[in-house]
Structure prediction request, 302 residues.
Amino acid sequence: MSRTTDILLTALAPAIWGSTYLVTTEALPSGYPVTLAALRALPAGLLLLALTRCLPPRVWLGRTFVLGSLNFALFWVLLFVAAYRLPGGVAATLGALQAMMVIVMARGWLGTPIRAGAIAAATAGVLGVALLLISPEAQLDPVGVAAGLGGAASMAAGTVLSRKWQPPVSALSFAAWQLTAGGLILLPLALIVEPPLPTLSAANLAGLVWLGLVGAAATYAIWFRGVARLEPGAVSMLGMMSPVTAVTLGWLLLGQSLSPLQFLGAAVVLVSVWAGQRADRSFRRPDDSLRPRRTSRLSVGE
Prediction:
């Protein structure tokens, strides 16, 4: 596939993640963030494992749990803490800092050069998200800010390490490993810190199915495919599609109003995402053909 196709397909994942806020607030019970995160990750991971029939070998178990923690368990827990303690716009803006963190981490772990254009695009994207989401009366909570920054750093590290640690399996299998590991980490934590879920309604179940099958299983397979094919900084910029989608869905489905400043913010985000792809388009790792690697299936013990 062409690079443009890879970008558009990868951008689909964060665009779908933008529906998470709408589904969570409208279709899921409130007050169970860790439990819902576990129910989102673990069933999706187990389903993908059943489909791919590819288990991580022993030598990959440690890396798999590190990535599952960074990309799912730690990231989702910190994300919920930030969402509970900060206005949504502030939390999303802190999350947008992930793009800058990825650029710095990729320099240290992958040897990727830091380009002025990529830094400028990431900075513009953060400002665009702030214009799109932060209201003048927004207040900061130190714990919430720390959680927001920690969540951005966790996802940034997971993105870069997912590029550095590429197993010889499909993106679908790689997503299955990480989702299962993340769910296994989250499940005992949920049992310890949260009460049992109430009886779930049809709407609750539909919301969980959407977040698990589409918002986790399908989209993270697409995301990790993009991580393997595109430069990390370019991939992280695509994550800014998520707040744009969230605001658009609120406007279209919930009747939320948008000010001219918010429309400007959305335009700035979209332009910054485009600029980020342009800034990083020349990057190629010497040992990376940018094609998915296909090998025979692995099993535990190989």
